[in-house]
Design brief:
four-stranded antiparallel sheet; Heat Shock Protein 90
């Protein structure tokens, strides 16, 4: 993009410079020649006036009287009818400039000089015009480079923002570039990010509600059917047994559908190196936290890998760090360690923590302890669960949030030797 913008600006600049420089150079050459000829013609007219006066007084022509009017190195030739031509000065070379003026008393005055000085001045003027054109193109190139960079950087930023949004990173980005059209696109992406975040949260809530309601109804149905299997009537017991078996099969189908839905949502999850991923996230958040007077400590075990979507993980950890920045105090610690078949990522601070009345509902949509939207933690939990993990408030005071992520399966990451299992499954 930057290269295309730069080439387009340079092409327009070069065409404009040539369109203006060529006529300017030609005009400058003509002006130099015109000035030389006008000076020569003026001298010849002055000489002709003097000679006309001598002829009118019937005096013998003496070219020495007009010597001062002849330019250095020039030649004066006076031609009169019936008389030999009178010459003053050396003969100039073949490349010469000549101006002739007629005499009133018949005859002509021809004044010639070498064209070399005029050619030299023309070359100097042409070089000056060429230098101006080159300087114009050079300055234009600098301006084009700056302009192309100024346009390309916002375009790359907007493209990257759209790519992260498509990957599930719904964080708002307040960066604006001073270009109205690009700022409108950025604002539209922020609006879309908010709408998608709410959509994901509503989807998670709907799936959870439907799953809970169906399981509750199925459990109640199974209990009633189990009671009917003890009925004294043989037909009733048989029918109840078959109905109970059908209810159990329905429960299994429900479990399979929910598992398939979780697998589909976690389809983008991939084995990632938590060391590099969390280091990058910490690097992104150090400046905002430092501006708020907070320090960020990073504690990561060696060789930790987990299955997650990088964009979703960045979003979820970013929500937790921002939550600690807004509601906590003291240094913030981002740590990762190995658990039992999981990898644990913890975000904690040394603040007052979460009040008891709020702890049970901290992940509910719309619940906030400081007047915020109450969407961040709910969204973070939804994103973590979309990758097959969990997000919990493990310690209320001081607040410690823990992300539980599944470890990669053997063979998911090539080139890594996985430890043998400690016990058979």
């Amino acid at each position: 993009m930057r290269r295309r913008i730069l080439l387009a600006i340079l092409l327009v600049l070069t065409v404009t410079a040539c369109a203006l420089g060529l006529p300017l150079g030609y005009t400058a050459l003509q002006v130099v020649e015109s000035v030389t000829r006008e000076d020569l013609a003026g001298r010849a007219a002055q000489i002709a006036t003097t000679l006309d006066d001598e002829l009118a007084d019937r005096r013998e022509l003496d070219l020495a009287r007009v010597e001062l009017a002849v330019p250095p190195g020039g030649q004066l030739v006076v031609t009169l009818p019936g008389r030999p031509a009178l010459t003053f000065g050396p003969e100039p070379p073949t490349d010469r400039v000549t101006e002739e003026i007629p005499l009133v008393q018949q005859g002509r005055v021809a004044l010639s000089v070498s064209a070399a000085p005029m050619r030299t001045r023309q070359a100097q003027v042409a070089a000056l015009v060429a230098l101006v054109v080159v300087l114009t193109v050079g300055v234009g190139t600098v301006v084009a480079t700056v302009t192309a960079g100024r346009l390309a950087r916002p375009l790359r930023h907007v493209a990257d923002r759209a790519s992260r949004l498509g990957a599930g990173d719904f964080r708002l980005d307040g960066t604006r570039h001073g270009v109205p059209e690009l700022d409108m696109v950025s604002a539209a992406l922020d609006t879309s990010a908010t709408a998608l975040a709410e959509l994901v949260q509503r989807e998670r809530e709907l799936v959870g509600d439907v799953s809970h309601q169906l399981r509750s109804r199925l459990t109640a149905l199974q209990l009633r059917l189990e009671a009917l299997t003890d009925a004294p009537d043989d037909d009733t017991r048989a029918e109840a047994g078959e109905a109970l078996a059908a209810a159990e099969r329905l429960a299994e189908v429900l479990d399979e559908l929910l598992a398939a839905a979780r697998e589909a949502r976690a389809g983008d999850a991939q084995p990632i190196d938590l060391g590099s991923e969390l280091t990058a996230i910490a690097g992104e958040w150090r400046a905002p936290l430092r501006a708020a007077g907070r320090a960020l400590r990073l504690r990561i075990g060696d060789g930790l890998h987990a299955r997650a979507t990088p964009a979703r993980l960045r979003e979820a950890i970013g929500v937790l760090l921002d939550n600690a920045r807004q509601h906590g105090s003291g240094p913030i610690t981002l740590s990762a360690r190995e658990g039992n078949d999981t990898v644990l990522i913890e975000v904690s601070d040394t603040g007052a923590g979460v009040p008891d009345e709020l702890a049970a509902h901290i992940f509910d949509r719309g619940v906030s302890g400081a007047g915020s939207t109450g969407l961040g933690l709910a969204l973070a939990r939804a994103l973590v669960e979309s990758d097959g993990g969990r997000l919990e408030l493990s310690v209320a005071r001081p607040a410690t949030f823990t992300v539980f992520l599944p470890v990669p399966r053997v063979g998911d990451v090539h080139g890594i030797r996985w430890p043998s299992e400690r016990s058979p499954r």
